[in-house]
Each structure stands twice: as C-alpha cells, then as structure tokens.
Hints:
Helix content is 24%, strand content 29%. The chain has helices at residues 18-30, 60-69, 82-88, 98-104, 107-116, 214-229, 264-267, 272-280, 303-310; strands spanning 10-14, 33-38, 51-54, 72-75, 124-126, 138-142, 152-155, 165-169, 175-183, 188-199, 202-208, 235-244, 247-254, 293-299, 316-319, 329-336. The protein has an 8-stranded antiparallel β-sheet with strand order 13-12-9-10-11-14-16-15. A 4-stranded parallel β-sheet has the order 3-2-1-4, sandwiched between helices. Helix 3 runs antiparallel to helix 4 (98-104). It is globular and about 60 Å long. The N and C termini lie far apart (52 Å).
Amino acid sequence: MIKTILPKSTIGIIGGGQLGRMLAMSAKEMGYKIAILDPGEDCCARKFADVFIHSAFNDFKNVEELCKLSDVITFEFENIDVEVLKILEKKYNFVQSAKSLEISQNRLSEKEFARSLDIPTVKYYKYNDENIVIDSTYLMKTLRFGYDGKGQKKINSIEEIEEDTILEKLLDLDKEISVVAVKDRENIEIVAVVENEHRENILFRSNIPANITKEQNNKAIEYTKRILDNFDYYGVLTVEFFISDGEVIFNEIAPRVHNSGHITMQSANKSQFRAHIEAICGLKVGEIYNKETTLYNILGQNEEYFINLITKRQGFLHLYEKEARHNRKIGHINFEGTVYLEDDFE
Ligand code: ADP
Ligand code: MG
C-alpha cells in the first residue's frame, strides 16, 4: 500500500537536469522540501533543492544518504544503477520499482516486454541473433543509454553490425505520438496523448490534440494502460509510439515525465509534473483534460530566435538555465492553439 506523503515532507530526486528542475518546482509550489543528487555541481535543478548531494549516480553511500533524508524517492531518468536500487528499495520508499526500471532501460527487454503483452513492435533482432536477415535498411541502436537519437546508425548489411545493439527495421512513419500516463493509488489516468515531430531525431514540436484517428488514439491508450498495469509502479510513465501504415506500433517506454509532456504545463488542468508528485505521494490525481496547445523545444542554436519571438508574441517561456550548446535542449515554449513557425524558423 502506498504511503501518503504530505507537504513539508521531503521528496528525493535522483538527477538534477531539467526534468528534476520542473519536478522540484512543482513540488515546491505544493510546499514539499526537495533533496537532489546529481554529479553536476551546477546542475539546473539545484536552485530548487533544499538539500543538494553532489555525487555520481552509482555511489551507493551517497544515494543511500539521499534516501535517508527523503520520505519518498523518485528519479528523472531511467539509467540509474538497478542493482543499487534493488537493495535500496527494500529499505526506503521507492514507488517506481527497480524491475520496471530494468525493463525500460534496455531497448531489447522493453520490446520483449511489449510483445509479451501483445503490443505490436517494429521487427527487430538482437545483434547476435543467428537468424538475422538484413533485407532492407535497419536502424542499429545501442541496447542502453541512447537519447535524442544518440547511439543510432542506419545499416544495410550484416557486416555493419556492432556488439550490444538492437537492429530495428526502419519504418516509414506517418506520425509519432506519445502517451503520458500516470498511475496513482487506485487508477491509471491519461495525462495527454501528444503528437511529436522530430528533427535530426530530437523532438522539435509537439501538438495537442494529436491528429490521429479515434481508433489509433484508443489503441495507444489501451497499450499504455496495459504496460502500467503490469508494472509495479506509481507515478508518470510515458510510452512512445509510431504510426506506420495506419498501425500503432510500440517504440519505447520512459518511466518518468517526458519532454513531450512539457506541453501539459499549459495544455492541461494538471501538468505531468504535478501529476507525478501527487501520484508518488499517494494522493489522488483524478481526471486530466487538455486544450489545443503547441510546444516548441529551444535548442542551444535557436536561443536567440525564440527569445526574440517571445518578446513579440504571446507564449509561455520555460528556460532551464543551461549553457546553450548545439542541439542541446535548453528550454521550451508553449503556445495556445496550433502554431506553425515553419515560415520564419531559421
Ligand atoms: P531515443 O528517443 O531514445 O533517442 P528512439 O528509439 O525513440 O530513441 O529514436 C529516436 C527517433 O528516431 C524516433 O523518435 C524516430 O523519429 C526515429 N526512429 C527510431 N526508430 C525508428 C524506426 N525503427 N523506424 C523509423 N524511425 C525510427
Ligand atoms: Mg524516443
């Protein structure tokens, strides 16, 4: 049974990037205290932390120190040491199980998991599968640690295969969507179904509502609920899907708040951050509904463009106080309604 943790208590967050920052801001608004552990001394969530532990993520002693200080512990990314978590979750209040994290941090195990639940995936092979047939272009992805398309490469022959990878058939995508969902003490609620457009494998723009059919929408929601039903987990979890040839195809699980879900800061009656904090604290999240909204990510090289834009038209600017490097996400802007910046963009 999940514990009820009330404001004034401390929420521990492993990771102090922009997701940790926005989680902390949301929790602070409710009156919680925040403890953050991160290896970066200048990490962007630090200014919202009451306690900051400067440490590597796999340092058992320091992670335990964070647990001791915290009434509930969460994380902003999936690549934390599962072995450390398996030991600590027996003693401290982790509500997102190490098992669910273990499945989501490996591209092969998450696809096997999806298939075991009868959720369609792209055709794939493990790099050392004896039956590999490369008869078209495949996307080779590292089994772990990829993000924003990092660790991915197109291949057309068996000779190009590298170790510790998964080979996925390159699909012709009609669209990409994500379902941001949350499991609270009694229900699974849908925070948002979001349509996502990537450029160079990095999320460029997100829209609500997603321009998909009712059947596709219902299928994606049903698959996401199936995953959450089979996870020992409370909090926000996001599933990315491809729409290809009209079919809804599982891509990956993020056991956390998600970049596309940043749109809910303006689109929803309750943002993904607030929903996550409530769910891990054992509160009821309740029904979430959204209005038509557009999100643009701000990458380092586009900072000037977006800052200039926001002085001229209404929008909701969220800057993460990160150094503006090429292709690095340093903020986002949400606009009411459907907004296309194509004509004046770059
Ligand atoms: P990550 O988001 O962790 O970098 P993804 O597997 O989501 O990795 O891949 C990033 C993007 O690359 C996807 O959002 C999609 O645009 C494209 N992509 C990934 N896998 C495929 C595939 N099998 N076929 C077509 N496009 C793909
Ligand atoms: Mg992805």
